Amino acid sequence: MEIDPLPNGTGSTAATTTTETTVTATLPTAVSNTTPSSKLSQLTESLKLEHQFLRVPFEHYKKTIRANHRTAEKEVSSVISSVADVADSNEISKDDAVLSLTSLVSRLQGLKRKLEEGSRTENLQVQNCRARLDHLESVDAENLSEWNNVRFKRILVDYMLRMSYYDTARKLAESSKIEELVDLEVFQEAKKAVDALKNQEVGPALAWCAENKSRLKKSKSKFEFQLRLQEFIELVRAENYMRAILYARRYLAPWGATHLKELQLVMTTLAFRSNTECTKYKVLFEPKQWDFLVDQFKQEFYKLHGMTLEPLLNIYLQAGLSALKTPYCFEDDCTKEDPLSQENFRKLAMPLPYSKQHHSKLVCYITKELMDTENPPQVLPNGYVYSTKALKEMAEKNNGKITCPRTGLVCNYSDLVKAYIS
């Protein structure tokens, strides 16, 4: 028999019987028989996983504000500089002055259009944030089933976007009318870089790094360095060694202080070449390096936008599978009704702990020591359990009397009953 771990000081009947609980793994749309208040309580706990629901559009909004601010500063600075040049010039003719002022007016009009367009974009993103806040506030016991259905679709769209199924994700969002509740625009930004990396091009990814340079530096990311290394490797593969050396001097040398070992390893490929059979260097020329860069870009992208590194769908599935995982699930005669009989679910559950322990450990409430055959548990008349060692010491100090630290019950040591674990 197996005994589930029990809280210290529980009743004797709990110490001698086995309680087996069956838990079913479910997605947020599942309908249970719990009361509405219980459902809302569970929903409150699960919402802690959805910080990205509000953070992603907010981070996108902040990024737009910063970009618009940089554009305005650059244009205004350029205009002021041009005005100063005209003002300081003593020999400029009237016609040249008119031309200069006309050019400045055109630039200012262009700046105005850019600012108006930026303002519209910012307003749309603010509305997006507001829509999500309203969605969270709209949940109550009456519409919980409908609200969970929308949430389930959001989780599916998020998963599709992460797996690069952009068109399918967009169609699901449009048919469900949840465009404001999903991050289609944000992932569309990542699509360019992901597609380019799959085609073995680093340009868009490097442009993304330049655009987010300060934030990547703050998080101590080395993704740009990895892109530069791959570009160097491609030059060596093409046997363009002189250009590879010049590239290394310009783009790789600045990383030498922090990534010297990796830099030395890659630079050695100039001597070993792309057809080397040396495993240490051969792996650098394998196509899987591009797959690694795709995965690395996604991880950096998720962190930058405040997303969970794992899809929410996987997180919810693992939460359910963690309650179902037992050694029996991985045996050949595992029942087909068990989700873990399927290979994909087994893969998801692989890093998870088993839901039940084979050997329970009972710890004494008083001494905090393990209760086993050498120090067996003893049961008081009120049903609370403590270790023999603790109760003996208490009896010796109180003329054979035992006082329960939980309830204050006083009894004789002879009234105790030894508990057996099987």
Helix-strand layout with pairing:
Layout: H1 12-16, H2 36-46, H3 51-88, H4 94-137, H5 144-162, H6 166-176, H7 184-198, H8 203-211, H9 213-218, H10 223-237, H11 241-252, H12 260-267, H13 269-272, H14 279-282, H15 288-304, H16 312-324, H17 343-349, E1 362-363, E2 370-371, E3 377-379, E4 385-387, H18 388-397, E5 401-403, E6 410-412, E7 417-418
Main location: cytoplasm
GO cellular component, one term: nucleus
Domain CTLH: 186-243
Low-confidence stretches: 1-35
Largest sheet: 3 strands, antiparallel
Order of helices and strands: HHHHHHHHHHHHHHHHHEEEEHEEE
* Helix-strand makeup class: mainly alpha
pLDDT averaged over residues: 83
The largest beta-sheet arranges its strands as 4-3-7
Dominant shape: elongated
GO molecular function: ubiquitin protein ligase activity; zinc ion binding
Biased composition (Low complexity): 10-20
Domain CTLH: 186-243
Subcellular location: Cytoplasm
Describe it for me?
This protein has about 425 residues and is mainly alpha-helical. The chain has 4 domains: about 50-85 and about 95-140; about 185-310, no CATH class; about 315-350, no CATH class; about 360-420, Herpes Virus-1, CATH 3.30.40. Helix content is about 60%, strand content about 5%. The protein is built from 18 helices and 7 strands. The protein has helices spanning about 10-15, 35-45, 50-90, 95-135, 145-160, 165-175, 185-200, 205-210, 215-220, 225-235, 240-250, 260-265, 270, 280, 290-305, 310-325, 345-350, 390-395; strands at about 360-365, 370, 375-380, 385, 400-405, 410, 415-420. The strands form 3 sheets. Strands 4-3-7 form a 3-stranded antiparallel beta sheet. Strands 1-2 form a two-stranded antiparallel sheet. The longest helix is centred in the first third of the chain and has 44 residues, at about 95-135. The chain is elongated, with a radius of gyration of 33 Å. The termini are close together.
